[in-house]
Every structure is written in C-alpha cells, then in structure tokens.
Design goal:
heterodimer, A: 495 residues, mainly alpha, 3 domains, 22 helices, B: five-stranded antiparallel sheet, five-stranded antiparallel sheet, 10 strands
Chain lengths: 495, 167
C-alpha cells in the first residue's frame, strides 16, 4: 500500500522551500494552504496580496526612483525587513496604491483589493513567490519575473496589469496542481471520508480514529492528516447546513439575501480583504482561519527573548493544529499529542536510515508521552505562561495599585531574578518593550492552555468517562499495532 | 450533481498531503529560490565550481548584478584565442596566458575596490576568485593551471560568453 498524492517533483520542490531555515509545521501547512486553497473563501487572495506587496515594495524604495532591481526586493529582503520598510517608509497614502502603516501590521490597498499583513503573512507570501519561481525546475521563472517587473514598475502598474498578473499567476498554480497531483486520488479521499462519516451525525473520537486505522484506508498515511481532514469535513458540513437553513428560510425574492449569504464570514482584518465580489460561489468561512492569518504565537517565537524551548513550541503547535476541534474531541487531541510525534519519528528514521531507537522498539510507542504526562505538561506550560505574564506586569507597572497587582509584580520580579537566559541581559526598558510586544500572544497562549486543561479534566468525568491511564494503555496498543503493520511490514518487504 | 463538499475537502486533502509528503521525502538536492537568492547575494568565497540550474540563470544573473560593484555580461573583444580583455563597469579586466600560468590583471578606476570576482558561464557553472590587494590601482594575480582551486576559474575566465561580476 503506497499512499501518495503528489509527484516526486512536487514533493521535492515543496520541501526545498523550507531548506533555508527551520520552519514550524503550522507555517509549512499555511504555505501549502496558500498555494493550494488560497485563503478561503478566495483561492486567489494570496496572489492579490503578493501583487500588492510587490507594488508596495517598489513604491517604498529608499532611492525613491524606479529601478530594474525593484522587483527583486520581495526575494532579497527578509520578512522583518519588508515589514519594517512598509511600516516606516513614506509610501503613498492614497491613489492607485495606498500604504497604511499601523503598529505591527500594514494595510495595502489597490484597485478594490486590500490586504492587512503582519510578519507571518509576509513570510507566507515570500514562500509563495519562491514557489512560483522554482516550480517545475524554474521552467517558468522568466514568466513569473516578468510579471513581478510589471507590478514593480510605476509606469506599467495599472488595473489591467494588476488583474492580469493575478490571473497569470493563478493559472500557474492551477497548471502545477494539474500536472503534479493525482486528482482522482484526492477526490476519492473525499468519497472515503464521506462514506465513513457522512451518515454519522456526531462522530465519536473512535470514529475519527477508525478513519485512519480502517483496513480500507487508502488515503491517510498519518493519523494527524486523517484527523485534520475529518475536522475539516465536520466543520464544512456544519457550515453548509447552516447556510442551507438560512437560504431556505429567506425569501428568494429578496434581492439582498443572496449577497449576504454569499458574503465571507471572516475575521475583522479579513473582512475587506481581496477584490470586491471575488467571493467563491460557496463562500466557505475559513475553517482554519489561523492558517491564513498570523500563525499562533508568532510574536513569542520571533522575540529575541527565550521564553519557551523549541520542544515546548512544537507541543503547542500540535495542540493548535487540532484546535478548536480538540475541545469537543479531546481524546482525539490526546491521541494526536501522544502518538503523532512517534509516527513523525518513524517516518524520519525510515527516510534518513538513522534512528536513536530501533524501529522495532519505536513502533511499540514506549517513547510516547502518556495522557497523564500530557496533562502535566499542559499544566507546566500554563504555569510558565502565567509567570511570563507576571513578569510583563512587573515591568509595565512600577507602582503597585492594589494588593493583587503587588502580588503578581512580586512573582514577576522573582521569576525575572532567577531567569538565567542571556537573552534577558538587556536594559529594563528594552525588556519591558519586548514583553509588551509579546503580551497578546502570551494572553492567547494562557487562554488556550486553560481551555486544554479544562477539556482534559472533562475526559475523566461523566457522562462518558475515560480514565487517563487505562485509556492511554488501550490506545497505545492500538497505535503500536497499527505502526507495526505499516512500518515493520514495509521494512521486511524492502529487506 | 457533485457533492458541494467535494471540492473543498479535496482541496484540504491536497494541501495537507503536500506538506506531509514533502516533509517525509525532503528536498533531495533540489535547489529552491531562497538558495539561489542566498548564493547570488552572498560574498562568501567557495572553491571549485558551483552550478546554477539553467532555468534560474537569468534570475541569478540579475540578483548578482544588483549586488555587485560592477558586472559585464560578455567580452567585447578577444585579444587572442584564449586571452580576454573587457571592461567590467569602469574596471579593465585582462588575462594573459603563459605556460602553466594565466595572469589576471585588473586596472581599477576610482571608487570601491572589489575583493572578489565571480564568473558565471552560460551553462550555469560559477566560480569565485578572491582578489589580491591592488597596488597602484592594479590587481595582478597569477593563476596556476595546475592549481585545483584556480584552474576551473581560469577555464571560465577564458571564455568570452562568461559573465564577470566584481563584488
């Protein structure tokens, strides 16, 4: 059983996008999404955004004059440098192209298209253009560069050029997909999910697990992918039903109704994104809005302050990849957190031929975190996050207004005094500024971890209690058997 | 009629599987745009020959020219069958071949002093030479044909279609 959707070329070219440094898995997923799905509900939205970005970079060149190298800026500048230029340069505030800096994000507007971009979104757009250039062994690099040149030259940047650029780039992505994916396979993947889950109103955690472990699963190699597809299926189905109800109850003669129904349900920032009226026919709300917006905790990861370890970020990223669905499907989330790292390790050691632990041992999941471990880890992370929040308070409020604040301040001061990381050896003002920049992410992380703890606590309680220890033992047997079937059999066949 | 969920879920599967399969397969030597950009804007010396994929050559040339002090796409005059003379910006670049050694002579104009020369052949082969300090506005270096480090560069240097960048 060899499950694969994409050609060797596509697999290698996509992997090559992320060779320049370490990227988190949510970021890689967000780039794949931008290439394949766009930013739902609009498939072309990332391309509109890219066109805007290239034009805006040309309009904010420090030299202030047209330059043949202007179109190269999107390739040579880092996302941080790009954002800095757009936030600080004296770009046009009105006219065909307008640039509105605002805090940590910039808003770009041209020809009814607008984009709000922070550092992560810019990083995604950079990967998108890198992909367009390198696709099919750079076969279309000249065509793509010519399009960027048109966008970067004020003499040729007009509405037809802008729309034409997006259309041509969209065509490139369409052709690439057509050439490199087994489209029928993706469609039959959908048929499989529909066959398994279509008739179940409220699937249970075990139904989602079965999607992966079933004998007739020809579609999902990893439990993670099966779970994420299931979550996408469930939320899109609900979305469609809700729209259906609305449509059925509204008067067909009401002229405004259809437009309202087709309007994107989107984040505030996104509400005006994309060209007007370019909403896809179905108008799906972004099921994974996070994937297209800033990836979570971007501020924590990019901060110069070392607040969390890479392992802690990886753990949180995996939680986020299954959230908010994990709140309802907590057992599925626990399975993901415990066993996905094992499966990921298995496929790594098969690929590289290196492994700290022999394959035969690894498949037994002896390395897996138990559900009890996971619960403890979430608690530790929550405590650590509360501590960093206290540090932020202690730096931001020198005078204590109340006993409660004083207590938090004291806690923050104590944590700060025993923090040994060199990254904290900066003047107090700089430290305060860095904490202020992270505060939103810290609050988001604290909320998430609180919700995860609450959800895990519910797993053990009625009406459907699953005591953590025996449930983990049972699940480990299931995953171990499944891993042995998939990975050891393959080894023997090759050996 | 096709299920309206079909397109959306197929898309989701396509995106998830692209990331999954790529990370399991890895790049296996495939060069990405970021690597082309890094090489074309770097000032790192390297030994021997590196190769730029043909499709990426035009982009590489543009990036290199944008970050170089001076660039010259092709020689405008060949002094002899092997020796070259050309202007790279305002710098005159000449080669003079003797048995076993090729002399590289750069006559600098006023302005920034290049520390490295990059050679880019029409087939994507590229080499970098670390330049000596100039004496009275002239850099003169002997490149031994037997030297494994400079020999590939000499071969590129003697070809009139080789692009030269001073960085």
């Amino acid at each position: 059983m060899k499950l694969r959707y994409w050609s060797d070329v596509a697999q290698r070219e996509f992997a090559a996008l992320f060779e320049d440094r370490d990227y988190s898995r949510p970021f890689v997923d967000a780039v794949a999404d931008a290439i394949i799905r766009g930013w739902p509900p609009n498939r072309d939205k990332p391309l509109w955004a890219l066109a805007l970005l290239v034009a805006a970079l040309a309009a904010t060149r420090p030299e202030g004059r047209p330059d043949p190298a202007a179109s190269l800026d999107v390739l040579t500048l880092s996302p941080t440098e790009i954002l800095h230029r757009l936030l600080t340069a004296e770009g046009p505030r009105e006219g065909a192209l307008a640039i509105h800096p605002g805090g940590t994000k910039v808003r770009l507007v041209a020809y009814e298209a607008s984009l709000v971009a922070g550092r992560t979104r810019i990083a995604i757009l950079k990967k998108l253009v890198e992909f367009l250039i390198a696709a099919d062994g750079f076969a279309h690099a000249a065509e793509v560069m010519a399009i960027l040149d048109t966008l970067a030259d004020p003499a040729t940047f007009d509405e037809p050029a802008f729309r034409g650029a997006v259309r041509a780039l969209s065509r490139r992505l369409y052709d690439y997909r057509k050439a490199h994916i087994a489209e029928g396979h993706a469609t039959s993947g959908f048929e499989y999910v529909k066959r398994k889950l279509g008739h179940i109103r409220e699937p249970a955690d075990d139904d989602l697990l079965d999607l992966w472990r079933a004998e007739d699963n020809q579609h999902f190699v990893t439990y993670r992918m099966a779970l994420q597809t299931a979550f996408a299926f469930l939320s899109m189905r609900r979305e469609m039903e809700e729209r259906g109800h609305l449509a059925a109850s509204a008067s067909v003669d009401e002229p405004g109704v259809e437009r309202i129904l087709a309007a994107p349900v989107d984040g505030e920032d996104d509400a005006e994104d994309g060209p007007a009226g370019a909403v896809s026919a179905l108008g799906f709300a972004p099921v994974l809005a996070d994937a297209s917006e800033e990836t979570p905790f971007a501020g924590l990861k990019s901060s110069a302050l070392k607040t969390y370890t890479q392992a802690e970020f990886d753990f949180c990223d995996l939680v986020v990849s299954a959230w908010p669905h994990g709140e309802r499907y907590t057992l599925s989330l626990l399975r993901l957190l415990a066993f996905h790292p094992i499966q990921s390790g298995l496929s790594n050691s098969l690929r590289t031929g290196r492994s700290k632990v022999p394959l035969e041992t690894r498949v037994t999941c002896v390395e897996a975190m138990t559900y009890r471990d996971i619960d403890a880890r979430v608690a530790t992370l929550a405590e650590k996050t509360a501590g960093w929040l206290a540090v932020g308070v202690s730096l931001a409020t020198p005078d204590s207004q109340s006993e409660r604040v004083a207590a938090i301040r004291a806690q923050g001061v104590a944590i700060l005094s025993r923090t040994r990381s060199k990254s904290f050896d900066v003047p107090r003002e700089a430290l305060a500024a860095r904490f202020a920049a992270m505060s939103e992410d810290l609050v988001a992380l604290a909320r998430l971890l609180g919700a995860v703890r609450g959800a895990i606590a519910k797993v053990e309680r009625p009406p459907d209690p699953h005591p953590l220890d025996p449930t983990f033992a049972d699940d480990r047997n299931v995953f171990a058997a499944e891993f042995a079937r998939r990975y050891l059999a393959g080894e023997r066949a090759h050996g | 009629m096709a299920d309206p969920l079909e397109a959306a879920i197929s898309d989701r599967i396509a995106a998830l599987s692209l990331a999954d399969e790529a990370l399991a397969a890895d790049a296996a030597g495939t060069i990405g745009t970021a690597e082309i950009v890094r090489r074309a804007t770097s000032r790192e010396a390297f030994e021997g020959i590196a190769t730029v994929p043909i499709g990426a050559l035009a982009l590489y040339r543009r990036l290199r020219a944008a970050s170089a002090l001076a660039a010259s796409p092709v020689a405008y005059a060949a002094a002899t069958s092997t020796d070259q003379r050309r202007m790279v910006g305002e710098v005159e670049v000449r080669t003079a071949s003797e048995e076993g050694v090729t002399w590289l002579i750069l006559t600098l104009a006023a302005g920034a002093v290049p520390t490295m020369m990059e050679l880019l052949a029409a087939d994507g082969r590229t080499a970098r030479l670390v330049l000596d300090e100039p004496v009275d506005g002239v850099i003169q270096m002997g490149l031994a044909a037997a030297d494994p480090i400079s020999a590939p560069a000499v071969a590129l240097l003697q070809h009139p279609s080789t692009a030269i960048f001073l960085i």
